[in-house]
Amino acid sequence: MKDDQASFTAFMVAYMRAYHSTHETPKIFDDFLAYDLIPEEKRSLIEQYLTPWVKQVNDYEDTELCFNQKMISEFLMQGINNVASRARYAEDNLAKAIQQGVKQYVILGAGMDTFAFRRPEMLEKLEVFEVDHPATQEFKLHRLAELGWKHPAKLHFIPIDFTKESLVTALTSSSFYDPDVKSFFSWLGVINFLSRDEAFATLRSITEIAPTGSMVVFDYLDTDAFIPEKMSPQMREFKDFLLKIDEPIITGFNPATLAEEFACLGFQLNENLSPDDINGCYLQGRTDGYHAQEHGHFACAVVE
Ligand SMILES: C[S@@+](CC[C@H](N)C(=O)[O-])C[C@H]1O[C@@H](n2cnc3c(N)ncnc32)[C@H](O)[C@@H]1O
After folding, report:
1. Is 268 helix (H, G, I), strand (E, B) or coil?
2. Where are the beta strands (DSSP E) in the chain?
3. pLDDT digits (tens, 9 = 90+) for 7-42
4. Where are the chain's structural domains?
5. CA of 229 to the centre of ligand 1 (A)
6. How many CB atoms lie within 10 A of CB 230?
7. How far apart are CA 252 and CA 227, in angstroms?
8. Which CATH architecture has domain 8-303?
9. pTM to 2 decimal places
10. Which of 272, 266, 275, 271 is nearest to 294 (CA)?
């Protein structure tokens, strides 16, 4: 992403959660606040990408828009399931973790996450840390002030660039973060944007600043999504689109070797959901034909 610009994909996924919340059934995740965080000009840009789907038009060869709009909009619509399901996956696991004594929730690459405002009752049990790229975080703080939303005392904002800084340094610089308290980390929609080494360095940091039993939930694309002969056509278009908006995705994990790799980092991989598993957990009963995104996986790992 660009150093001086809030992440556009952060607005896109917030839009997806908001869209899901207002238009889709059955409702997997109700992010009734997400629309508010998206400024009007970003909203209309996102809607422009979704237009082909909304209008149900089939032929875009003459469109003046520069991408294969239909495929991108299909991918975005498919992505809505993924984005709503992963948010639900994270917060379901968080609820279980709280019962096991977790007292800190660290949202890595938080973007326009609304947890702290949507679930104020949860802040009675948790300190919440939004850790994000400085440009995205600065935008969000500005937007929150513009909306006049009251800043909860137990919500803390920590800027970091995962490609340049260590999570250990960033988190421990906050006097509110306690490295001895069991913590829950979510890392949604971020890993693919980092190199494998950067992603692993941040994951390793978690084991250094969170005690045994702390957890991380994350989503990832499988390595097939990066192999031209194996990636779906929609994935190919979407990757080109992300490249054009300066947020290229570069890294996938191999689901078959993930448990071993996480063991080397100091985690036990507790769960590793495939697209079929995600369909089974969250997308039963859909009548619109959309299903879990090809190549998309969710996982949960525990610090050993
Ligand atoms: C697709 S958005 C996901 C946002 C949020 N997790 C969600 O699911 O709504 C990607 C997020 O990763 C953050 N991000 C991307 N590259 C980053 C980097 N190098 N350092 C810190 N954050 C980064 C962006 O600022 C953005 O908030």
Report:
1. strand
2. 104-108, 127-132, 155-159, 183-187, 215-221, 267-273, 296-303
3. 999 999 999 999 999 988 889 999 999 999 999 999
4. 8-303
5. 28
6. 12
7. 10
8. 3-Layer(aba) Sandwich (3.40)
9. 0.94
10. 275
